[in-house]
Structures are given as structure tokens and as C-alpha cells.
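User: C-alpha cells for both sequences below?

Assistant:
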Amino acid sequence: MVITFQTNGLSVIGIGFTHDYVGKGEDWDGETLAKAKVNTFSVDPYARWSYAKFGPVRLFLDMGFGVAASKYKGEVAGHEVDSDALVAWRIGVAPGIAVSLCKNLDFIAHCGFLGYRESDGVNSAYGETGFGFELSGNDLSFGVVYNF
């Protein structure tokens, strides 16, 4: 869920909330490798700056930071696992594109992330710790925005 406030035609201030859940995994022949669940909650406030417009297409940068907490519980290879909360955070810029489908409806896509990330675990919500530009499927998102 994302809540946004448009301050003028070019900038938007918003905050995103997400909750992810991952269930069990199986190998190629259907044998259960893990009976586990991972719950993640994240908060990602941002400011959006639109820097170019070509007809119905707008290019923008979402600048912000995020904090995520994950908890892992279950069984892996016959051993019970119950982790402490794993915390991750990031600060940086995500480039994106918006296409106005009609007067009040926009299609939004983000691809990539430039900035710094840090996490307690290797499988965090934001990826590996470090600075740089990340261009992977984890940093690809699509959405629809309805403008009132």
C-alpha cells in the first residue's frame, strides 16, 4: 500500500508499507526441503521528482529511505529454526517511468536502485549490504496510481 501527496505537478511525497510472506519450499522431485515461513514488514517514505515529460510518459526519481524487519520460523533439513528479528535499511534513489493511461490513471514502473543498503542477514528484504547500483528482478516493480 502506498499513500502519496502531490505537492505540485512535478513532485510527490509518499510512504509505502509492505508485508511479505513466504511459505515452504520443495526440490525438483517434490520432496520438502523446508517447512518455513518468513514474515517481513517494511516502511519506505520517499519524495518523487519528475525530471522529463514526453506526452503521456514521465521519467522520475524516487528518493528516500526504508526500514524492514523480518522474522524466520520453521524447519530446515530436520532442524527447528526460530530467528530473532532481522533488520535491514536502505537510502538511495530508484529511477522510474509513469505512463498516463487516462486523466486519472497512471501506470508506474521502477527498475533499479542506486544507494546504500545494510542488513542483519544475507536474505534481507532489501538485498545485500553495500553501496552501488543494483539492477535485478528484486528491484523491478509495477503499479497503478489513481489520481483523485
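Moving on to the next sequence.
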Amino acid sequence: MQRVLARRLKGLVPESQTGLERLIDKKRASYDLQVELDRKKQEHAMKMRQFKARAEELEQMNLDNQKEVVSKDKFIRDNCNKRQRYEESLMSEEVALAGKQVELNDLIAEMEKLKQHEVEIKTKLQAALPYKKYLDSVFERSPEIVSGSAQSEVQGIVNKYNTLKEWRGTLQVRLVRSKRELMRLRDSMSVYDESSTNSVVEIDYQIKRIAQEQEASFKEFGRERHLQKRCPTSSAIKPEKPL
């Protein structure tokens, strides 16, 4: 066995080197290989620690993103519920608006009728005024001979005219109030439309942003895991056994 090893060593080292020098060279080469191996192991261990820390960081980021998705989902559901309440309120406002519009149209029609009736009463009143003046003069001269029917008829026309004037004032007040209420309802609908549009835009933006962040996090985590799998588990360089 020693002769075989001697022949092998004789073919590997120069003839001028002694056995001790060859042994020293072998030891030096083995030491250098061991140092290089230790360095590779340290580098590998450092990379593994870095990969592990990065993986933990990405897992934490993924967990944070999931928590954010849950919170944003609650925010979106709350906004959807709020939007539904707004829509229900809008529907009730639209029903009320339609009712006010019908009431306003009825008041306008009634106002037109009263105006027409007022014109007729004025015409009758103007036609009856000369008779009233005549009856007043006759009554002043001889009240006992004047029948009360003509005077009461004229007075009835006057009273009716005054009543119509009062009704006209009341209807005008109701008409103004109805117009104000109609304007308020229209303003409320306009404000709701703008608010609803802004809420929908904000919800769509939040959903898109969360999806993009989660996708980017998953891609980054996948790249890190891929690099970690490609990294060799051992960079060992086997040293030659010293003689």
C-alpha cells in the first residue's frame, strides 16, 4: 500500500521535493481548501439568513396586506350600505318631490281659476256699482221705501269679492312655500348625485389600489422564494485527504 501511494505521489510532485516538503504542500493545499470551504459556508449561511429575514418580511407584508384588505373591505361594505341608504332616501325624496310637483300644479291650476273668477267678480262689481250708488242715495233720502234685496245682492257680491281676495292671498303663500320646497328637494337631489358619484369613484380607487399592492407583494414573495430554491444548500469543496 505504501509503495502504491509512493508511486502516486511520485507522479504528482517534482523529484526535487522531499517527502516532508510534499507533505507540507499537501497540508497547505488542504488548509487553503478548508479555509475556502469555511468562507463559502459562512457566505451561504449569511445568504440563508438574509433570505429567511426577507421571507419573514414578505410574509409580514402579506399579513399586513390581508389585514388592510379586511379593513378596506369593511370600509367598502360600510360605504355600500351608506350608498344604499342614500339611494333609499333619494327614492323617498323623489316620491316627495313628485307629490310636491302635483300639489304645485294643482295650486297653479286653482290660482288660474281664482284669477279668472276674480275678473268675473270685478266685472260684476263694476257693473253693480252704479246701482249701489243709486240705492245708497235713495236709502239716504227714504230708507223705509228701499227694499233690502238689491242692496243685499250688491253687498253679497262685494263680500264674495273680498273672500276671493283673501283666498288668493292664501293660495299665493302656499304657492311660494311649495316652490321653495320644490327647490330644496331639487338641491338635495343634486347634492346627493354629486356625493354618490364621489363615493363610487373613491371605492373603485381603493379596490384597485389594494389589488395592485397585493399582487406586487405576491410577485416579490415569489421571486424571493424562487431565488432561495435556486441557491445551493451546500457550497462544499471536498478537500483531499492528507496522507
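User: Anything stand out in the second?

Assistant: DSSP finds three helices and no strands in the chain.
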